[in-house]
Structure formats: structure tokens, C-alpha cells
Specification:
Elements: H1 3-19, E1 47-49, H2 51-59, H3 63-74, E2 80-86, E3 90-95, H4 97-110, E4 124-128, H5 140-158, E5 162-169, H6 174-187, H7 200-215, H8 226-251, E6 258-261, H9 262-267, H10 270-280, E7 284-287, E8 290-293, E9 304-307, H11 315-328, E10 333-338, H12 343-355, E11 364-368, E12 372-376, E13 379-381, H13 393-400, H14 402-410, E14 418-421, H15 422-425, H16 433-453, H17 470-480, H18 482-492, H19 496-515, H20 528-550
Parallel strand pairs: 4-5, 4-10, 5-6, 10-11, 12-14
Antiparallel strand pairs: 1-3, 2-3, 7-8, 8-9, 12-13
Helix pairs in contact: 1-3, 2-3, 4-17, 4-20, 5-14, 5-18, 6-7, 6-8, 7-8, 10-11, 13-14, 16-19, 16-20, 17-19, 17-20, 18-19, 19-20
Amino acid sequence: MTPDELSEALSAALAAAVADGTLDLPADAVPASVHVERPRQREHGDWATNVALQLAKKAGTTPRALAEDLAARLGSTPGIKAVDVAGPGFLNITLEAGAAGELARTIVESGAAYGRNDSEVGKKVNLEFVSANPTGPIHIGGVRWAAVGDSLARVLEASGAEVTREYYFNDHGAQIDRFARSLLARARGQEAPEDGYGGQYIAEIADAVIADAVAAGDTDPRDLPDAEAQEVFRSRGVERMFGEIKSSLHDFGVDFDVFFHEDSLHGSGAVDRAVARLQDAGRMFEADGATWLRTTDFGDDKDRVVIKSDGDAAYIAGDIAYYLDKRERGFDEAIIMLGADHHGYVGRMMAVCAAFGDTPGVNLQLLIGQMVNLVKDGRPVRMSKRAGTVVTLEDLVDAVGVDAARYSLARSSVDTSIDLDLDLLASATNENPVYYVQYAHSRTCAVDRNAADRSVARADGFDPALLDHETEAVLLGRLTEFPRIVAQAAELREPHRVARYLEGLAADYHKWYSERRVLPYPDEEVETVHRTRLWLNDAVRQVLANGLDLLGVSAPERM
């Protein structure tokens, strides 16, 4: 019996109580589904619900009286072993072993679809993440967003949402000019500008720009006048740097559906259209020769200049136009992932959302991520050989590999800082969380290989009632929770919940494996209990694989 089936049984019992007059409630007040959850203490049963406490007052009765009536009605339901009333009116429900064990077959037969749900169906989501400036390699903060953002996209898609992964390409503004000047200076053997960029990668990009120009039959950009040379290094350098960024992300398992160019907002008239829309809505005003957005009407701490007194657009103008562009492209929700230094950005952008008549926190959602610190040999890792001042995506992958990097970055809530121990993540020990989960999956695969050698085949028999050991009840209970965990991770925008679930599942599996022998000894006959436990083994294998896939991490068959 699945949680959904139990929920339906509870709803049917409530409907029957209304129909026979026991429960004084309008028929439409009976919930279509009743929430059930795993009790914290195993001795309280397999499932619990507080539905009696929720409905008793409306029905003019006490929670305990309602709970006792429901317990009596549920007691004869096939698959339910016992229903106990606890405290003021909680229902604790214990399933028969056969009803609980049937889940193993359900999971195996569902395959990759197990865990998918429809909690986000109908939502068109634009998920913007990473969006690092094309002025250098992706640093460790951006790597965290790459891992978390792609995992969140996978979780949302598994919950039915239509997701577009978008990268905002910052190719407009002063930072690009500094990048171009830095390339030109390095190419001419000069010191980098005081506000410019350093690191070995600047020399590499500068050399590549020169080589590209010469190969195309163009003049060596070093020989051009300063303004022309800077433009060549700007256009070719940004293109080359962004190509490296996209390649690095692809190798990290992250690909985007849309690369949106900031420059296009200004060249297409999108900024002017957004300003006009807000002016028509009465949200703008003129003061000191500038055009302002009255964001204080929507909770911001001060109003914001959108068009400066010299006629140039302020930085927020691009943000306003970009948000409107997303909404005009048909996205119901725009989710933007930002670094820890963007806290001040939240209030103004939520005000922009409200100024357009949208709902902050719904149509626009901002996720702020905290710092990532790397530790090796007990000491902080602070610098990259290539970037000079920061640790990059390539540095992390070179140290621990893609799987460990992605998993370790996605397994913690983004609103907390994390310290990554590179020595631990590169180790093959149970203290390494990604190794611990992947090893559980490889162990299930080893069981399958040994089962084939000993002629143990699932198709030859399955008796879920034989899954009656305490460790099997715990393991089945954990497997049952997976769809709810995925839906919850999508709802809360917290893919780390999937990783923590997998670690719990791996622990339950390892304990079961040590206490219940799946396969017969060489001199024993194959019995139904062996085949049945193989079903459970393979159900665990499937859920581990499904969960790791949601995190963009491989599920190895051998380790």
C-alpha cells in the first residue's frame, strides 16, 4: 500500500462517515487527499495522520472521537494491520508486511519514473543561474550555483514543471571594458590596468585573440590604434572567454537552453519599452533631471534612478527590462540564483516585480547562496594557478572529480556557508558522502551480478509478506518517501533534500544488507525469500539511481 492509496482510504472513510451521518460535515468539506507522514518513532507504526484534529471542530465533535471512528472504519481495509489512536486524536497506522512489501515491485516496474510527480505541473519556469561575467573562469561561488541550479532544474522537471535553464551573458558595461584593456596590455607586454584583471588566463586569452586575428587574415591587433585594438580584444576576447565558460560547464554536466545577452536589452529597445510600461502605470517620476522608479511604494528602502540625468540608463534599467522580457516570453515564474553579495538586490527587484503588477516571491523568486570555502591538508585553499586570485571550476574538478564536486555542492542548503574538505571528497571512505551513496548503488549491482551467477531471478517469484524483518520495514518506509522528498525539494527550491535522503537510504540499505542475506549460500537451494529480497535490493538500486540522476551525479555499477 502506497501513501497515496492510504490517503485515498482515509478520504473514503471520512466520506462514509459523512454519508451515514456520523460526521456532520458538508460533503465538499471532505479532503480529496489526506496527508500522511512517517512517524518519528518506528514503534508508532508505518504512517500517521492528524486529520482528526484538523476536522473535528468543523464537525462539532472531539478529535479523539473522530479518530476512533476512523480507526474502526480503517481496521477492515485490506493491507492495514492495525490503527491506533494516540494522544488527543492522532492516528498511527501499521501496514501488513505484504502490503508494505508490494512497494518493492512497484518501484522496480516503475523504473526511472519512480519519484516523478505532478506537484509543479502547469508551471513554466525560467531558472537563471551561474551568469558569471565573461571576464574570467568560473570561480567556486559560480560552481556552487552550477551544481545547485542544474539539480533544481532536474527536480522541478521531475515534478512536472516546464523549465528553461538560462544564462545571463553580461557583455555590457565597465567590467567588459576593463577586461579588454587588460588583454591589450598583456598582449603588448605592459602591466595590467590598476582596475583590470590578472592571472595566467589573461595571457592565454590575449595570445588566442592574436592567433585568431592572424589566422583570419586580419591585422595583428597589437599594431592597431588603441581604440581599435581594444575593440578587437573586447569582441574576440569575450567570445573566447565565454566559449571556455560554456565548455567548462558542459564538462561539469551543465548545459543551458538560453544564453541571454545583456547587450541585446539596450540594442533592441527593451529598456525603453520597460520604462514606458512603468510610466504608463504611473510608477515613474522625474527629479533632479533623472527618471526614477518609485520602488518605496513596494517596500524598497529608497526610490531608484532608472535613467540618469545624462540620459544614460542606470544599471537597474537592464534588470527591469530583463524581468519584463522573461514575463513577456511566457514564464510564470522567474527564479534567479545570486551570490551572497547580492542581498541588497532583493528589495529593489521585488519592488520592480510588484511595480509591474506581479506577485513578489511567486512571479519572481530570488535565491541567495552563501560562500564556499575549500580546505586541503587542513588549510584553506585560496588561489588558482590559472586565475591567480580565485579557485575555479577546473581547480575543483581536478581535485575531486565531477561527481564529488557536484554532489558536495548540492547537498547543503544554499543559505549556509560550506567548507569542502578536498582530501575527504577524494577519499574512498564512508565519511565521504558521495562515495557512501555511490557505493550503496554499486553494492546493489554486485548483488544482481551474483544473483545471476546463482540463478536467482526475480521473475521466478515474489512474496512481499516475506519482507517482515525490522530492517525491511525501515527500508521500505524510506523508499516510500522518495516521491514526497522530490516534490518537497521542488516546492521549497531545495535540491539538497534529495542528497540527504539518499544518504539516509544508503544507511538503511547497508544495515539491511548486513542483517538479511539476499542470496543463498552456494550449497543452499534458491527459495522465494531470496527472490523477494532481490526485488527489494533492486528497488533500492532504482531509487538510488533516480536520486543521483536528479543531482547530475553518476550511479556506478562497480567501485
